[in-house]
Amino acid sequence: MPCATARPAPTRQQQSNTTDLAALLAFKAQVKDPLAILAGNWTATVSPCSWVGVSCDRRGQRVTGLEFDSVQLQDLGSNRLTGAIPDSIGSLSKLESLNLEVNLLSGPIPPAIFNMSKLQAIGMTRNNLSGQIPGNESFYLPMLELFLLGQNHFDGPIPPGLSACQNLARLSLEVNNFTGPVPSWLATMPSLTRIYLSTNGLTGEIPVELSNCTGLHGLDLSENKLEGRIPPEFGQLRNLGFIGLANNRITGPIPESIGYLSKLTQIDFVGNGLTGSLPISFGKLLNLRRIFVDGNQLSGNLDFLSVFLKCRSLNTIDNNRITGSIPSTLANLTNLLILSLSGNQLNGTIPTSIASMSNLQELDFSRNSLSGIIPAEINGLTSLVELHLDSNRLSGSIPSSVSSLSQIQIMTLSHNLLSSAIPTSLWQNQKLTKLDLSQNFFSGSLPVDVGKLTAITMMDISSNQLSGGIPASFGDLQMITYLNLYGNLFEGSIPDSLGKLLSIEELDLSSNALSGIIPKSLANLTYLANLNISFNKLDGQIPEGVFSNITLKSLMGNSALCSLPRDGIAPCQNRKHSRSKQLLLEVILPAVVTLLILAACMYMLVRRKMNKQGKMSASSDTDLLNYQLISYHELVRATSNFSDDNLLGAGGFGKVFKGLLDDESIVAINVLNMQDEAASNGFDTECRALRMARHRNLVRIVTTCSNLDFKALVLEYMPNAV
């Protein structure tokens, strides 16, 4: 029999390749791949070295790199891989680069990954990974250069095993939950160029030893709980381009030595307790482009500003205690894009020299004590996008030159002493998105073409002295979400066109002199969450729709409004009641007038007879004595203070009320209109005639009530009179 041919044993190289293949297939099986990147490409029929995201060495075809971040796979964007990182990755013994950034991976990092001796780069930024990083006993990455775990949920101390990684150049652990101190052993790592530990829970003081990391280009310890002072020794970090210590608990002065870091381009010391003034040595920072030190307790004046000639963004001293005036030399900062000095104690006027800062895009002098006018020269800021001058003591008018600010999008001038009319040119700016002129003394009316502000989303002109009608063109502001006209002198009706503001979320028309009905179109504003029309002169029925959820507080001060049954609002009268009232006006009131005319004629006849007889009959004297004496206050009680509920009718001569006297007798009370001179002058004459008149078709007069401001006839009440 022929001998069977023995299969050659697999070589060590083949065994290694098989191990790599199995590890990768296990990775594919464990993670979820919603974009089907792995499902359509990672197949056992082809070499893993040709798979997307996999790289191999040239000689042995061993896997050396996994790249699944959105940068490496540019055509696929964020790959959105989910699930846990499989332990099998630890079997890729030749792996040099593991990049799983910008995915949705969760759970801990397998411990085996921290013992891969060839691994040079670990990139897992922007996932949902969690847990602690292993300590020294299971951490061996001697070749590690990049350790990027930012924007995850890791906790515990910064792994001490990193201290053995002498090749580490970049440590990025920002936006996690690491606790404990900033390790002083970082100073023993000669290759470190960037340390990013911001937004964690680190405590203690900033280690002085970090000043030995002379190769550092970037240091960010912001958003932690660090205390103490900025080490003056940091002046040795001569290669530092960025330093961030924002939002900690750091106190004391800014060291003069920081001004010797000539390569600094950005400083961020926001939100600490720093005191003193900015060092004069900052004038040597010729490469400085951005400096942020707002939210501290810095003091002094602005003389130091001249040192920032090359700065492009100077959010220098917001919310500090800087005093004095704004120097005219500020205009020398011609490269500046942002200048924010808000929330200090600055006084004096705005220098006209700022006109030369033509590159400025944002100017913020808000929340100071600046006075004087807004200089007309402000039109020189042709690149300005945002202007914030609110909460000062500025007076005068808004200069018409603001029309030259063609790029302006946000303007806040509230809480000042500005007056006069709002410039017409301001309403022509089609790029303006936010306008706040509230709490000033602006007067005059609004132009009819307010609707040209087509980009506006927020407008507040409340608490001024603006008058006239609300322009109907407000309905053209289709982008607006907030409109506040509170506390002005606007009159007339609410424009029906406001019902076209389909994006409006908050509308305040309160405390004006608006009249008429509430437009039904407002009821269809489905995004309207807050509406206030209180304290106007509105009447009629409250519409349904969004008004069903409006509070009584938003409607109060409009006594003539009515609604369907609702607490605090008078119900609207039904049609039957309205018909009865119409009957009173059309039938009974003319009858009363006719009676008055007949009484006047009767008086003339009696008067003529009296002249012939020369004296009044005894019976007339007796009738006079029989009239009741009824006071004004009794009439007030009888009619519930002349309530509309007791109103029988009204006309040119006055109003007729139904009343219940103290003796429980029911009467009709004809209150004469004192504004009608004829009715007022003829009152006494008519009273004398009616008291003597006797006829079966005339209503008997009970008595009269008269004083300088009030005249009324009290008549017998006829319930079925027509």
Key descriptive features of the protein:
6 helices; nine-stranded parallel beta sheet; disordered N terminus; alpha/beta; single chain; 722 residues; 12% helix
How would you describe this structure to a colleague?
This protein has about 725 residues and is α/β, with parallel strands linked by helices. About 10% of the residues lie in helices and about 25% in strands. The strands form 6 sheets. The protein has a 21-stranded mixed beta sheet, with no helix packed on it. The protein has a 9-stranded parallel beta sheet with strand order 27-29-31-33-35-37-39-41-42, with no helix packed on it. Helix 2 (about 575-615) crosses helix 6. The longest helix has about 40 residues, at about 575-615. The chain starts with 11 loop residues before the first helix and ends in a 6-residue tail after the last strand. The relative contact order is 0.03.
Give the helix level as a range of percent: 10-25%
Rg (C-alpha, Å): 43 Å
In angstroms, what separates the terminal alpha carbons? 138 Å
How would you sum up the global shape? elongated
Structural class: alpha/beta
Q: Provide the low-confidence segments as ranges.
A: 1-7, 70-77, 575-580, 614-626
Largest sheet: 21 strands, mixed
SS elements, strand count:
47
Short description:
The chain is α/β, with parallel strands linked by helices. Helix content is about 10%, strand content about 25%.
Topology:
Blueprint: H1 12-30, E1 54-56, E2 63-67, E3 82-84, E4 97-99, E5 104-107, E6 121-123, E7 128-131, E8 146-148, E9 153-157, E10 170-172, E11 177-181, E12 194-196, E13 201-205, E14 218-220, E15 225-227, E16 242-244, E17 251-253, E18 266-268, E19 273-276, E20 290-292, E21 297-298, E22 313-315, E23 323-325, E24 338-340, E25 345-347, E26 362-364, E27 371-372, E28 386-388, E29 393-396, E30 410-412, E31 417-421, E32 434-436, E33 441-445, E34 458-460, E35 465-468, E36 482-484, E37 489-492, E38 506-508, E39 513-516, E40 530-532, E41 537-541, E42 560-562, H2 575-613, H3 618-626, H4 632-638, E43 647-651, E44 654-660, E45 666-672, H5 677-681, H6 683-692, E46 701-706, E47 711-716
Parallel strand pairs: 2-4, 3-5, 4-6, 5-7, 6-8, 7-9, 8-10, 9-11, 10-12, 11-13, 12-14, 13-15, 14-16, 16-18, 17-19, 18-20, 19-21, 20-22, 22-24, 23-25, 24-26, 26-28, 27-29, 28-30, 29-31, 30-32, 31-33, 32-34, 33-35, 34-36, 35-37, 36-38, 37-39, 38-40, 39-41, 41-42
Antiparallel strand pairs: 1-2, 43-44, 44-45, 45-47, 46-47
Helix pairs in contact: 2-6
